[in-house]
Design a protein that fits this description.
Layout lengths: L1 E5 L10 H13 L5 E4 L19 H12 L3 E5 L8 H4 L5 E3 L3 E5 L2 E6 L9 H10 L2 H8 L3 H17 L6 H16 L4 E4 L6 E7 L2 E7 L3 H4 L1 E6 L2 E6 L5
Length: 241
């Protein structure tokens, strides 16, 4: 069993090095990875209306669909930049999770999530998140022309990046407590994105090895987590042409 976990590519539709490297990386694991788990913010914004997906995403979306067709199971965990993914991807057999979820993988119990709901003390963010994912907002945004919604999504994403803050000690403690509670509940691995602060730890708890990983943003150093025949490994680098 081989599985790959990535997060926070923050694709904005431009043909940057990050976009080209990601296309190359996905091509390199197509056919060899059994599972690809995308833990949120793969796209810096996402709205798929009657005109289809944003044109700048068409190539990489087609690559994901091709991976699904050729035997790599693709799963999306929605982030705080990309949601309402199910309408477009689920008809192609790609799984979409709007929240964190338990996944059984090779006899192990994994908790996977983008990670933006770990900090339950941030009530203002959670309220805003609930609004943007509400049925009301879903219906309203469908009524606007695609170009306007895409433009609004870009603007919101830029504003969100400006407001990014380093991981505080208080938040770091909450994240650790969250993972340990999952481990005590029988989970074998907790894998998150969102925080742009990479971590890879393994703990011996109740005679089992427990893995805690926070994925760094793909856009920063092209890192990913690999599960290969029972072993988790944090990896980085771009395959050669």
């Amino acid at each position: 069993m081989k599985a790959v976990f990535i997060a926070d590519a923050h694709l904005d539709g431009g043909t940057s090095d990050g976009y080209r490297y990601l296309m190359r990386f996905l091509g390199s694991i197509q056919g060899s990875a059994d599972e690809l788990f995308i833990l949120g913010d793969f796209f810096d914004f996402w709205f798929a209306g009657k005109n289809g997906v944003y044109p700048g995403f068409s190539d990489i979306v087609e690559r994901l669909l091709e991976m699904q067709r050729t035997g790599t199971n693709v799963s999306f965990f929605e982030g705080n930049h990309d949601f309402f993914l199910g309408d477009y991807f689920e008809p192609y057999g790609i799984r979409v999770f709007s929240e964190g979820a338990m996944i059984d993988l090779d006899g192990k119990r994994l908790f996977l999530s983008h990670g933006d709901t770990v900090d339950t003390s941030n009530k203002a963010y959670l309220l805003l998140r609930k609004f943007f994912r509400s049925r009301f907002f879903y219906v309203v945004q469908k009524k606007f022309p695609s170009w306007l919604v895409w433009s609004g999504g870009k603007g919101f994403s830029r504003m969100s990046r400006i407001n990014e803050k380093p991981l505080s000690q208080e938040l770091d403690d909450r994240i650790n407590m969250f993972a340990m509670e999952k481990f005590e509940g029988g989970v074998d691995a907790v894998i998150l994105g969102h925080f742009h602060s990479p971590r890879f730890e393994q703990h011996g708890i109740h005679d089992r090895v427990k893995t805690f990983a926070i994925l760094d943003a793909w856009k920063k150093d092209h890192s990913y987590l690999l599960y290969d025949d029972g072993e988790f490994l944090m990896k980085s680098g771009i395959p050669s042409d």
